[in-house]
Write a structure and sequence with these properties.
The protein is an all-alpha fold. It contains 3 helices and no strands.
């Protein structure tokens, strides 16, 4: 997938922010939550996996640890439909 600049025929802009320091070490509970969110997205929204990877490659997120909340909407009571 092309970046916005490439799609518009423009040269890519320099990084919007300097390279971040290495992300902090996650606790076991945080690691489990990240793994659960990644599994949920892969199972229910597989089309988002490449998007998350692109965001990480562009330096916009720190990877799957940036995916904070995942849930399925089940009908009008949840705001779906």
């Amino acid at each position: 997938m092309k970046s916005y600049a490439e799609a518009k025929g423009r040269p890519p802009s320099p990084a919007a922010r300097p390279a971040a320091a290495a992300p902090r070490t996650l606790t076991d509970a945080e690691r489990a939550a990240v793994a659960a969110n990644k599994f949920f997205v892969e199972a229910h929204l597989p089309e988002l996996v490449p998007f998350v990877k692109e965001l990480h490659a562009e330096g916009l997120i720190d990877g799957w640890r940036a995916v904070r909340h995942c849930r399925l909407l089940k009908g009008a009571d949840d705001g779906a439909g």
